[in-house]
Design goal:
This protein is an alpha+beta fold. The protein folds into two domains: 179 residues, 3-Layer(aba) Sandwich (Rossmann fold); 84 residues, Immunoglobulin-like, CATH 2.60.40. The chain is 24% helix and 50% strand. The chain is built from five helices and 15 strands. β2, α2 and β3 form a beta-alpha-beta unit. α2 packs across α5.
Length: 322
C-alpha cells in the first residue's frame, strides 16, 4: 500500500469514528448549575503523618485545599487565615480533632465541615527495568537498561461536622506516580512524584465530596428539540419567544444526582403567578424535557425555575411577544 492510499484509509477510519461518536454522544445543554445539598464551607486542617517521609502531610493537605478551592459549590476557608497558635493549641499534636475542638473551630471560622486525615504510609521504589532508547517507524529499535522510580501515598481522610463535632464521612485515598529513566540518567528525587501522588489524592477527595454533597445539571430553554437515544438535543436556544412558536422546551440533563430526588419546575409570569407547575422524580444521568404552551399566554416577561429537593437551582427569565 502506497502512502496516498494509506492516508485515504486513515481518513476513512477517522470519518467513521467521528460519525460513531456523533451518534452516541448527546450534546450537553449550554447552561450549567451546581447546588450544594448541604452547606459546604470547609477548612482543611492539619494531617497526622504516620510515615517516615517528612513534609508529605503538608503536601497532601495543601493539594487537597487547592483542589477544593477550584471545585464548584464548595467554599474553602484558607487555613492561613486561622490564628495559627490558637488552631494548633486546640488540636492535639497528632492532628486529631475532638468534638469540642471541632465545634469551637466552626464557631471561630463559620465553616460547617473540617477536613483532616492521616498519612498511613509512603512507599518509594527504584526498580531495575528495560527502557526503549530509540524508535523507528513507530516501533522500538533499541532497548537498554533503565530504572523505574515510583511513589505511592496511602491516606485516610475524615470529614468532621462542626455542628455535632462528629466524623460524618471517612474515606481511604491512594495516590501514585512513576517515571522510568535510562540507567545512566540522574534522578532528581521523589519529591515531584510525591507531589503528583498528592494531587491524585486531592482529586479523589474532591470528587468524593462533590458526589456526596453537591448535585449538577445542564439546562437550556429552546424553541425546538430532537430526541436522541435516551436524551434530547435542543435547537434555537433563546430567551425571546413568540406566541406563534406554540411550545417552548426546557431541556435538562442531571449529570450528578442521587436516586429518586425530587425536582420541581415552575413557570410563572412577572407577578409571580404560577402558570404551570410540574413535580418530578429524577436520578443520576436522567434527561428531562418540560414544555410550556405559549400560544395562549399574554405578551410579557416570564420565568422558569427549577428546584431540586426544595432548593432552587436556576431561574431563566424569558419574554413572549404576540
Amino acid at each position: 500500500m502506497d502512502d496516498s492510499a494509506a492516508i485515504l484509509v486513515g481518513l476513512a477510519i477517522a470519518i467513521v469514528l467521528i460519525a460513531t461518536l456523533t451518534f452516541f454522544v448527546i450534546p450537553e445543554p449550554a447552561q450549567r448549575a451546581v447546588v450544594a445539598t448541604d452547606r459546604l464551607d470547609l477548612a482543611v486542617l492539619k494531617f497526622e503523618n504516620g510515615s517516615k517521609w517528612e513534609g508529605v502531610d503538608e503536601t497532601v493537605r495543601a493539594r487537597i485545599e487547592g483542589s477544593l478551592v477550584n471545585a464548584s459549590g464548595i467554599n474553602v476557608f484558607a487555613r492561613s487565615q486561622l490564628d495559627s497558635l490558637l488552631a494548633e493549641q486546640m488540636m492535639s499534636q497528632s492532628g486529631h480533632i475532638d468534638t469540642a475542638t471541632a465545634v469551637e473551630v466552626g464557631a471561630l471560622t463559620g465553616v460547617n465541615k473540617l477536613i483532616t486525615g492521616t498519612i498511613l504510609g509512603v512507599d518509594t521504589r527504584a526498580d531495575a527495568t528495560t527502557i526503549c532508547l530509540s524508535w523507528e517507524d513507530g516501533a522500538c529499535s533499541e532497548e537498554g537498561p533503565g530504572t523505574s522510580y515510583s511513589a505511592r501515598i496511602l491516606t485516610q481522610i475524615r470529614v468532621v461536622n462542626t455542628t455535632t463535632g462528629l466524623i460524618e464521612r471517612s474515606m481511604d485515598a491512594t495516590g501514585s506516580d512513576a517515571i522510568t529513566l535510562p540507567a545512566d540518567t540522574a534522578f532528581g528525587g521523589f519529591d515531584t512524584l510525591l507531589a503528583n501522588a498528592a494531587s491524585e489524592i486531592a482529586q479523589s477527595v474532591t470528587s468524593s465530596l462533590s458526589a456526596a454533597y453537591t448535585r449538577e445539571l445542564r439546562y437550556g430553554l429552546y424553541t425546538a428539540y430532537q430526541t436522541k437515544r435516551e436524551g434530547y438535543v435542543g435547537s434555537r436556544e433563546s430567551a425571546h419567544f413568540s406566541s406563534s412558536d406554540g411550545e417552548i422546551h426546557l431541556i435538562i440533563h442531571f449529570t450528578r444526582a442521587q436516586e429518586h430526588e425530587l425536582f420541581d419546575v415552575m413557570w410563572s409570569d412577572s407577578l409571580a403567578t404560577v402558570v404551570k407547575h410540574v413535580e418530578d422524580v429524577v436520578s443520576d444521568n436522567d434527561w428531562r424535557r418540560y414544555s410550556l404552551d405559549v400560544s395562549s399566554l399574554s405578551a410579557g416577561r416570564y420565568f422558569v425555575r427549577g428546584a431540586l429537593n426544595g432548593t432552587e437551582v436556576f431561574e431563566i427569565p424569558f419574554t413572549i411577544t404576540p
